[in-house]
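Lecture 7, part 2: worked example. A protein chain together with iron/sulfur cluster.
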Amino acid sequence: MQIAVSGGKGGTGKSTVAVNLAVALAESFKLVLADLDVEAPNDHLLLGVEPANEREVREFMPRFDYSKCTRCRKCAEVCEEHAIVTLRDGTPFLMPNLCSGCRACEIVCPVPGAIGEAFKVIGHTYVTETPYGFNLVSGKLKEGEERSMPLVVEAKKRARSLPHELLLVDTAAGTGNTVSKAIEGSELLIAVTEPTPLGIHDTELILRLGRLMEMPMWVVINRADLGDRRRVYALAEKYGADVVAEIPYSENIVRSYVQGKPVVLWKVPEARVFRGLAGKVVDFLGGGE
Ligand code: SF4
Ligand code: SF4
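Predicted complex, written out as structure tokens:
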């Protein structure tokens, strides 16, 4: 089983919900939490753990053998990323940061051996044992790299390869193709929002995506006391989503970030909100152990 926690806008508290939900749900399921916000993963910070078991994610890059290359320019012409520039005599040069690893240049090159294989490391995945009875899998894109999709795919694959009953996916902000990839295969999409005009605007985008992907949707309102919650309820109704929890603005939650200790384990009223949400997920998924 898989569920996803997402939110159109950055900074809505998506990771707070994912992490606290994971801690509570780990009492009912053998759980893996996947932090697929590969440009800015932060679940490990909220859980107070150091990413471990690093594994490189590599991508193909062409390596030119100039002793064989006939300077025909076909590789540069086929490259949609414009990652190959040619000199006046046709000699090809690669701009590695633009290369997407599609291999079109290798396929089109008419001279056997003129393009060989090289690889570049575009990021890393991690599997970290947490003190809360579940593993955290995360992906981190290398600085300067722009293509996050291969990282999302690899991190998700690594998460799925671990023994689990429930995979809880924490996506990036926005509604780009990496978010769709992260959400793909989920039984339930939980959209975290805040009742501000920007939060509501971006939540509509994620609910639109969820409807397109035909999955049941829930909405969690974070900092619920700081805006007009009625607009969130109206939006949820429009998309057939249920508003399942309201989290008030809370200094305890802020303190829990700083300490790297999930608030769901604290003896404070906020913990009950996350436990209540976890209970609803257990009911929705039909049990656990
Ligand atoms: S692998 Fe694809 S993106 Fe990279 S240089 Fe070749 S054609 Fe261009
Ligand atoms: S397609 Fe092959 S032979 Fe032609 S310029 Fe590129 S590397 Fe050289």
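The domain at 2-56+123-285 is CATH 3.40.50.300 (Rossmann fold). The mean pLDDT is 91. Keep this in mind for problem set question 3.
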